[in-house]
Amino acid sequence: MRELIHNRTVIAYSISLGLMLGLTSSLTAAADTPRTSDELAVATAAIDTARSSGAAELAPLELSLAREKLERAERLASAGNKTEARLLAEEANVDAQAARSKSGAIRANRSLNEVQASMRALQEELNRGASISPAGASGTGR
Questions:
Q1: Most buried pick, 54, 81, 89, 117, via CB within 10 A?
Q2: 71-90, pLDDT tens digit by residue?
Q3: Which of 68, 57, 55, 64 is nearest to 99 (CA)?
């Protein structure tokens, strides 16, 4: 009788342990999925932001690299390879941020060049004005 109770206890313990392990792995997989989808969403948003900042024209290589990595990450996620998908999504995010930064730097450099050109033009105007002789200016008042 004791042996029967012991066997039932061992079986119940084994079943509950199996259920706990199954539940734990299910929860881990469920927790993994939102993290992966979050990373994919962040990368997608970063690419959209980079595109709207002019990266398609000013940093096309970086933006293209980000898009390619995001597409590969999406394929990996669909195939169930969540860890690699997350890593590629993070890389896509970084590449998109680099594209946005590069396009911003190019725009800032262009603005700087425009301001410097305006300053040179103003300096030339000032130099021309200073070269007018005072005698010529006072000679008109006779």
A1: 89
A2: 999 999 999 999 999 999 99
A3: 55
